[in-house]
C-alpha cells in the first residue's frame, strides 16, 4: 500500500498517476486523503486531477460542487480532518 503513494505523487507518467489515484479511492488508510488532496491541488494533468477528485468522493463520501473540487475539497478536509483520520486504518509496509 505505501508503495502506491510515491507513484501517485512522483511518477512521470500521468496515466500511472491517474490509475494509482483511482485505486487509492478504495483504500481507507492513513496518508491516502492527503495524497489525493495533493493530487487535486498540485498535479499538472487534468485527468489525474479528475481521477483524484473521483477517488476523494469514493473515499470520503464528500461530493464537491464541480469536477475539479477546489477549493471545496480543501475546505472540507480542513473542517473534517480530525474526525475522518479516526476512521482510517494504519498504513502497513508491504512485505
Protein model, in words:
This protein has 95 residues and is mainly α. It has one domain. 61% of the residues lie in helices and 0% in strands. It is built from five helices and no strands. It has helices spanning 4-10, 14-24, 32-42, 46-60, 72-85. It is globular, with a radius of gyration of 12 Å. The chain starts with a helix and ends in a 10-residue tail after the last helix. The mean pLDDT is 88.
Shape: globular
What fraction, in percent, of the residue positions are helical? 55-70%
Largest sheet: none
Contiguous uncertain segments of 5+ residues: none
Strand content: under 5%
Overall number of domains: 1
CA radius of gyration is: 12 Å
Distance between the termini: 10 Å
Key descriptive features of the protein:
single chain; 95 residues; 0% strand
Condensed summary:
This protein is an all-alpha fold and 95 residues long. It is built from 5 helices and no strands. The model has no long low-confidence stretch (mean pLDDT 88).
Protein topology:
Blueprint: H1 4-10, H2 14-24, H3 32-42, H4 46-60, H5 72-85
Helix pairs in contact: 1-2, 2-4, 3-4
Amino acid at each position: 500500500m505505501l508503495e502506491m503513494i510515491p507513484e501517485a505523487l512522483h511518477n512521470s507518467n500521468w496515466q500511472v498517476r491517474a490509475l494509482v489515484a483511482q485505486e487509492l479511492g478504495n483504500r481507507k488508510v492513513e496518508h491516502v486523503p492527503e495524497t489525493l488532496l495533493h493530487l487535486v491541488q498540485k498535479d499538472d494533468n487534468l485527468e489525474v486531477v479528475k481521477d483524484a477528485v473521483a477517488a476523494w468522493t469514493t473515499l470520503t463520501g464528500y461530493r464537491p460542487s464541480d469536477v475539479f473540487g477546489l477549493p471545496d475539497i480543501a475546505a472540507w478536509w480542513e473542517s473534517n480532518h480530525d474526525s475522518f483520520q479516526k476512521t482510517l486504518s494504519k498504513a502497513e509496509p508491504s512485505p
